[in-house]
Amino acid sequence: MNELYAIGDVARRTGLSVSAVRYYADAGVVAAAASTPAGHRLYDVSAIARLELVRTLRELDASLDEIRRVLAGGATLRELATTHLALLAGQEARLRSRRAVLSAILRQDSTAEQVTLMHKLVGMPDEERDRLIDEFWTEVSTGWEPPERMVEWWRAARPELPEHPTAAQLEAWIELAELVRDTEVRQAVRRELHEACTTGAGPLMTSSPMLDALEAGAAIGQPLMDAARERVPPDSPRGREIADRWIGWLTGIFATPDSPGMPDTPEFRIQAADHMLAGAEWDRTPPEPEGPFDRYMELVAAVNNMPPERFPFEWLAAALRASALPAP
Which domain holds residue 114? Predict the structure, then answer.
């Protein structure tokens, strides 16, 4: 503990260069413990330990003033770490933003004006982001009378960037923001939704009774998705309970004051299971080219980090078939 070391030994022990050891001494960070008659600096074990700490803190981008305060006892390592962690988080956020913009530039072969716009989009505050989405849906629903509840559902699907988004989330937001700002896209979404709501089965599917039924079905859908994800056996009591709830919902869809709806029979459950298998086959077919509304929903899911989950057609079909048999 009392041995003194020459500056060359100190450099080898700490991993610093000789000139760096001299610099820290001249800067008043870690002074030499003594010097030889010839003026060569000597360091004790305590000084070497302090220099090792200095090297570590410098690699963590601490300033000399911060290091002096720590060594002098004016600041704790915890306080220094807290400060630098906050700075690092800010640097990471800026790097993610830059990566998102650069990726969009490569993907789109953007012009200088587009690069400026993308940079602004990345830094857009929550209020402006909400206003942009609201303006989009206001224009989409203007000029015709979509069901009010449908408009509420559409508006509810909006991007919500977290405090520290990933680069993928920022890239999705840039594409989404450009999508909803495009006048042609707004007109295309209006035409797409107008046709879906007013032609074919659209009026029936968007009627109040059907929307009520769809909302009721959503309450059953989540336990169903959870059971399939958890690999619950379809012929288990839990599987039968979900099948019963599904059939209760399904038979009630077409119920009227004059008719109780479809009868719940084993044959009906088998038929419903066959329909589920047909749905699974349809789900596996290559998708048709997506429209702007589908792309909007995909990008919202990407921004919110909520990848779409496939409906468990096969699991429900198995549960319905099992429920058609008498309970054990």
Answer: 89-198
92, 93, 95, 98: CA torsion to nearest 10: 170
**Tens-digit pLDDT profile for residues 270-313:** 999 999 999 888 888 876 767 899 999 999 999 898 877 788 99
pLDDT, tens digit (0-9, with 9 covering 90-100), for 84-136 = 677 677 667 666 666 666 666 666 665 666 566 566 666 777 788 888 899 99
What is the rounded CA–CA span in Å between residue 201 and residue 206?
9
CB atoms within 10 A of CB 92: 11
14: which residues sit within 8 A by CB, 6+ positions away?
21, 48, 51, 52, 55
CB atoms within 10 A of CB 227: 21
Identify whether residues 240 and 316 lie together within a single domain: yes
| Residue at 220 is within a domain | yes
Give the end of a domain, one of 148, 175, 198.
198
Is the distance from CB of 247 to CB of 220 less than 8 angstroms?
no
DSSP labels for 117-179? HHHHHHT--HHHHHHHHHHHHHHHTTTS---HHHHHHHHH------SS--HHHHHHHHHHHHH
Task: Retrieve residue 315's tokens.
Answer: 């699991």
The pair of structure tokens assigned to 66 is 């911060």
pTM (2 d.p.): 0.59
3-state helix, strand, coil in the chain (%, to 5): 70, 5, 30
How confident is the model at residue 1, as a pLDDT? 62
